[in-house]
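Q: Here's a chain of 449 amino acids. Please give me its 3D structure as tokens.
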Amino acid sequence: MKRNKIDINLNETTHSEFELMGKFGVNSDFLERPLPHGCATGVFKYEDGKAEVKTTPSLFTKDEKIGGGYLPVTNSIQQCIYGFLEDGTHIRLNTFSSINRKQVVPGLSTIKYIAYETDFSRLPFDKEQEPEELWITISSLSEIASYIIPKNLESTEALRKQDIKICELTDFDVFLKLLYFKNNPRMSLSIKTNIALKIKPHKPYNEKSILSYATKFERFISIINDSRMDITSIRFLRNNKCIKIRLPYSEVMKENASKDYSSLIYIPGLAFNFYTNVIGNVFEAINSKDIKFNNLINNYIYNINHEMNINSSFLNYVNSIEFYMVGKKFKNGKEIKSLNKKISLFIESLPEKLYHLFFEQAKGKENHSETKFISSVVDTRDYLTHGEKANSKFLITNFQEQVDYVEFLRNIIRVKILCEYDIPEDNIYQEYENNWGLSHFCSLIKKYL
């Protein structure tokens, strides 16, 4: 049965379920300054990570582009929706869309909003206080960062509250924070551990910079898992109390919640405990402002769960490399324009040890396997994009061959990203040895070359 009251300490998760009446508006101070047609009464329901708001009448906003007339609010591109619930909780729908807008009686309409990111607060959003720290939970982070868990779970309260400082960035400091939840207070052994990314802001408070880092960190965790991970909550704290919580929805939320990540703890590879001596450098590299590097990550994440068909996947990976290499130059200062050269230099930028995960021969002009591989990639890309080179002897026409090439390209890009994160090459090498074997990718396309 759904609750009709939200926890007073905002101790809610994406698994919470509740349903409450409330008032809703299009401006943060709508309770004190209601706008014409911008307020409504309705029901707020939260279940399975999604928030749903149904209001009567529909919410409207003034639009100067149509002479100051009113248009219905239909999505979050226009603005946020604010609410005040019957238990005193303030909410904000940050990202949402609308469905089922209909006229009930003449002059009275109803509309339903589905929200994919919702903020809960004890204060109106126009009177928000700056947080002193933020706690961000992300799928699998508890396993990846398990090295901070004390061996003795019956540790002192001081030890339980310890935060591990990782690095200092321009706008904030970054920590790993150990959280404990006792499932049964009478059974000391029944303890579940959870680890959060803790952000301690500098002055002046820059929320945009912090949330940007949180998103980049989520993508970093996805690259480590080679599967899309999700931020499960962001808690804003002041004076050791949660003043606001953000619960995002993700399509992979349920799948990630049911996965077992324990192998990350024990199998040598990309979990933090295998390179703690450089973890600060890694956390700093995550915050890279390099647009091309961030685009490379975004394009990789876009298809990380194999959502695209094989031709689209192939083009996505080739174009990702091409865009990343735009503006890169040879040692003589001349800009690299040939796609063949861009791919070649992208691959050869890998450390020698990691390069040999993909090619047996040494780097250089005499590497015929690399040359043939790149010719096949470029000619197939040109054919799929422009219809050119249909008669090329390097054109990939066999479906299984294309599947293998896509997997090969995908992992070259992943290894490149891991290197740019400053993860030691020995750990990346170990990751591939444990999961695929050292000769897997060399053998994957060797038969075609």
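Q: Can you summarize the key feature?
A: Confidence is low (pLDDT under 50) at residues 181-191.
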